[in-house]
Specification:
The chain has 124 residues and is an alpha/beta fold. The protein has 3 helices and 4 strands; from the N terminus they run E-E-H-E-H-E-H. A 4-stranded mixed β-sheet has the order 1-2-3-4. The termini are far apart.
C-alpha cells in the first residue's frame, strides 16, 4: 500500500509565483517573476510550470524577485540556474532581485551570489 504525504502550508508561507511586466531603466521591458513563501520540493512540483511559462512567454530579460521567500530548497536553485542557461542561449538575461535573508544564505553557500542584481545606492 502506497502512502501519500501532503504538505500543508500556513497562509503566510504558502508558495506562489507572481508574474508581471515592468519597465526598467531606459524603457527596457522585462518580465518579473516574484517567488513567495516556502519553496520546497513539493512547491517545485506545483509551480515549475508557472515559472517556465513566465520565462517562455516572450523575448524579454527575466528578473526573479526573492524578497518574500521564507524557504528555498536546492531544487529551486537548480531550476533557476537551468532557466538562466536557456535564456542565455537566447541572448537573454536572468537576474535575481532582493533575496530574503534565507535565500541570500543559500545563494552564498552555492556560490550563486553573482546572479543577484547590484543595488544602486543613491548619493546622499
Amino acid at each position: 500500500m502506497a502512502t501519500t504525504v501532503t504538505r500543508r502550508y500556513s497562509v503566510a508561507s504558502r508558495p506562489g509565483v507572481v508574474v508581471s511586466k515592468r519597465r526598467g531603466t531606459l524603457d527596457a521591458v522585462h518580465t518579473v517573476v516574484a517567488l513567495k513563501g516556502e519553496l520546497d520540493s513539493a512547491a517545485l512540483n506545483l509551480l515549475v510550470d508557472a515559472f517556465d511559462a513566465a520565462v517562455g512567454r516572450d523575448d524579454t530579460d527575466v528578473i526573479v524577485d526573492l524578497a518574500e521567500v521564507d524557504f528555498i530548497g536546492a531544487a529551486w536553485l537548480g531550476t533557476i540556474v537551468k532557466s538562466r542557461a536557456v535564456l542565455r542561449a537566447q541572448h537573454r538575461n536572468l537576474m535575481l532581485r532582493a533575496p530574503s535573508d534565507v535565500a541570500r544564505r543559500l545563494l552564498d553557500l552555492c556560490g550563486l551570489e553573482y546572479l543577484v542584481e547590484p543595488v544602486e545606492i543613491a548619493p546622499g
